[in-house]
Design a protein that fits this description.
Helix content is 38%, strand content 16%. The protein is of the alpha/beta class. The chain has a seven-stranded mixed beta sheet, with helices on both faces. Strands 1-4-3-2 form a four-stranded antiparallel beta sheet, covered by helices on one side. The longest helix is centred in the middle third of the chain and has 31 residues. Keywords: Amino-acid biosynthesis, Isomerase, Methionine biosynthesis. Pathway: Amino-acid biosynthesis; L-methionine biosynthesis via salvage pathway; L-methionine from S-methyl-5-thio-alpha-D-ribose 1-phosphate: step 1/6. Belongs to the EIF-2B alpha/beta/delta subunits family. MtnA subfamily. One of its GO terms (biological process) is L-methionine salvage from methylthioadenosine.
């Protein structure tokens, strides 16, 4: 993994969180190292599957859609790692690489969706390609298509969601579901960005999102770049801020949504949903259709990643828990569909949230 230091992001609000640089045969995956934000903006080049796997695992790239895009590009790197001796060589290397990438993180379904798609294209095109290089080119085209589709879906989510936000409202969000979590525009933050582009005055309250502070480090950074007013609060302050009447809507992202609408998102989201219900504040989930897992009837079957206890005991380098104390560190929780006012997708808003409504929107 090589590092490309820069003094700041490209001029303008657009972010290329993850992308491909170069040809199919010699290119690399370039991504923003989100572990260095907000104090340092670094782009890193990943030349092989293992560096992409490490970037996903260590949260250098994070957010369900962005993980899916990174994995798709990583599959291209893996497809060429055994050389281009034959079409079968490329196909077999692709299979091995997608299997490896599937082990990086368990909860975000976009990862598996993108890798399944790359595998299907690899199998179909292996029978049609006239050379190993042609097969590799086709795989890169598919990965770039996944990236472009994500951009389009996020823009559509923003347009649909902005209709739910009123002039002068306060909106609370949890974790980061902005451009850094997708190809460039976000899901939950796409709603805010679109509302602002429509001329609506919106004030965002960003939960800091313990233990890795994605809200404080990343969401606040993105909103500040777009000159959207943002106030960072500790996670434990959300209910009080609602009680004070500062918040009129909650919008969050998702990493996997079951067939009935139960939604997995960053740990702490469930508590925010309960507080929103107690204060009669609408709670919205914003996610593309690729985040739905219709094979799971409800959220009890969503796999929940448990991460290194040191993220809690030694957050950002300083020990805050005594040695020998047990730590439980689930990265996600599941908000029941009954607490969700609507799910904002690229196809429209699903409300009320139900199995029938989801199927009608996604498959109708």
């Amino acid at each position: 993994m090589s590092v490309e230091p820069t003094t700041g992001p490209t001029v303008g609000p657009t972010l290329e969180t993850v992308g491909w640089v170069g040809s199919a045969g010699e290119g690399v995956v370039r991504l923003i190292d989100q572990t260095r934000l907000p104090s340092e903006f670094l782009q890193i080049d990943c030349p092989d599957v293992e560096t992409v796997w490490e970037a996903i695992t260590m949260l250098r790239v994070r957010g369900a859609p962005a993980i899916g895009v990174a994995a798709a590009f990583g599959a291209v790197l893996g497809a060429r790692r055994r050389g281009l001796a034959s079409i079968e060589t490329v196909r077999d290397a692709l299979r091995a690489s997608t299997a490896r990438l599937r082990t990086s993180r368990p909860t975000a379904v976009n990862l598996f969706w993108a890798l399944d798609r790359m595998d299907r294209v690899g199998e179909a095109e292996a029978a049609l390609a006239d050379s190993p290089a042609a097969l590799l080119d086709r795989l890169l085209l598919e990965a770039k298509t996944i990236e472009q589709e994500d951009r389009a879906m996020c823009r559509a989510i923003g347009r649909h969601g902005a209709e739910l936000i009123g002039q002068g409202q306060g909106v609370l969000t949890h974790c980061n579901a902005g451009g850094l979590a997708t190809s460039d525009y976000g899901t939950a933050l796409a709603v805010i960005f679109s509302a602002a582009e429509q001329g609506k005055s919106v004030h965002v309250y960003a939960d800091e999102t313990r233990p890795l502070l994605q809200g404080a480090r990343l969401t606040a950074w993105e909103l500040q770049r777009r000159n959207i007013p943002v106030t960072v609060i500790c996670d434990s302050m959300a209910a009080q801020v609602m009680k004070e009447g500062r918040v009129q809507a909650v919008v969050v992202g998702a990493d996997r949504i079951a067939a009935n609408g139960d939604s997995a998102n960053k740990i702490g989201t469930y508590g925010v949903a309960l507080a929103a219900r107690a204060h009669e504040i609408p709670f919205y989930v914003a996610a593309p259709s690729s985040t739905f897992d219709l094979a799971l009837p409800d959220g009890s079957l969503i796999p929940i990643e448990e991460r290194d206890p040191r993220e809690v005991t030694h957050g950002f380098g300083r020990q805050t828990v005594p040695d020998g104390v047990d730590v439980y560190n689930p990265a996600f929780d599941v908000t029941p569909a009954r607490l969700i006012s609507g799910i904002i997708t690229e196809k429209g808003v699903i409300a009320p949230v139900s199995t029938e409504g989801i199927r009608a929107m996604l498959l109708g």
